[in-house]
Amino acid sequence: MTDWSTDPALAAELDAADPLAALRDRFELPPAPDGADDSIYFVGNSLGPLPKKSRAYVTGELQRWSSLGVKGHFSGEPGWADYHRTFEESMARIVGAAPHEVTVMNALSVNLHLLLISFYQPTPQRHKILIEEHAFPSDHFAVESQIRQRGFDPATSLVTVKPREGEQLLHTEDIIAAIDACGDELATVLLPGVQYYTGQVLPIAEIARAGHRVGATVGIDLAHAVGNIELSMHDDDVDFATWCSYKYLNASPGGVSGIYVHERHVDDQALPKLLGWWGTRRDTRFEMVNEFDAIPTAESWQISNGTALTNAALRGALEVVDEAGGMGPLRAKSRQLTGYLLYLLDELAGDDVTSITPRDPEQRGCQLSLEIVPGDIDGKAVFDEIEAAGVFCDWRYPNVIRVAPAPMFNTFSEVRRFVDLLVAGIAAHR
Ligand SMILES: *Cc1c(COP(=O)(O)O)cnc(C)c1O
């Protein structure tokens, strides 16, 4: 544990001692607006920056298309037809799964629908889905429409759990109590690994245990968790999960999503599933026969042929994770970055700023949701000022600034500069 201090020299010392410092140079970070000093890219929770290798790999695919045309499907390393398979090992390490439990395809919300088709099997007795009251709207829409598709009514089949009155975070016991209250009416639990607004890390293993105890399937939305915290989908006994790769994994805007399916389900041909030709075995796929011959892995959820350009972008992005030595070293630096930021806020901003995100390092990832508290401070003016000074961060009404120092490309000096800008902004707008 570092001994924090407010000495401005500390930030440079921490950067000099950072074993991951070289990774910053693997990215093209957006420049600051005109008139500002350097930028500080604290929005990797929204869209990660461009890895230089992704630029190279995408350019390489354009070249392959230009020179090989259709032959690119099967020539080159890897050919487009099997490009997605090259990610199984590295993605499996990132989410804590076996390679046959993961694949990459489509986008998150689409995959959520595909997985709910398999894992939400309502019956008149057991028809409820539990989500959070403040779920990401796309997740809420997906669940609501899935309930309707099956002939049920969200008014009676959609159950939510929410923070207690006057609070913003979820209590584990409230989640468990909501699961228990549904009992044998609960078909599926769908909760996030990390809550997108508060940055709270939820207890995935406990949620999975509680869901299974009442006989429900358990799915986890890893949008804000993947590439952020260490995950163990398989050991936590989660049934299914999906994530996007453009937030903490930096794999391009709208980049290719990933899915995880527990190995007890991957070859269960009795599960309902929407089928497409990329889910059928590759040795018979091009015989163009009408018998679906499922690949006995998560790949059988594949429908369409893969997208070479977004796969190329993902390739460059995952190589940075591998260069870091995986999620362990990244998570260690992330705790330091947020620990330093919280310490500096306590010392330099005092009561003007409070963190909605839990202070317990086990319950927070990269993102801190910071509330500017006293009513006499114009929070939006503070935000506009630090944004004009080069800080990429995000503003949520009425008074929350979300920042996500990311261990792959952010520095301790940036954390220090951000806090100094925030404190100066507050002083100027009180
Ligand atoms: C970012 C995010 C999404 C985005 O869904 P797309 O299908 O990739 O547009 C969905 N759910 C959550 C919880 C997210 O954080």
User: What's the assembly state of these chains?
Assistant: single chain
Shape: globular
CATH topology (level 3) name of the largest domain: Aspartate Aminotransferase, domain 2
Spell out which ligands are present. Answer: pyridoxal-5'-phosphate
CATH domain class of the largest domain: Alpha Beta
The biggest beta sheet is recorded as: 7 strands, mixed
Number of strands: 15
Question: What strand line-up does the widest sheet have?
Answer: 4-10-9-8-7-5-6
Q: For this structure, what is the CATH homologous superfamily of the largest domain?
A: Type I PLP-dependent aspartate aminotransferase-like (Major domain)
Which secondary-structure class do the elements indicate? Answer: alpha/beta
Query: Distance N terminus to C terminus?
Result: 35 Å
Q: Return the string of H and E elements.
A: HEEEHHEHEHHEHEHEEEHHHHEEHEEEH
Based on CA atoms alone, the radius of gyration comes out at 23 Å
Helix share, percent? 25-40%
CATH architecture type of the largest domain: 3-Layer(aba) Sandwich
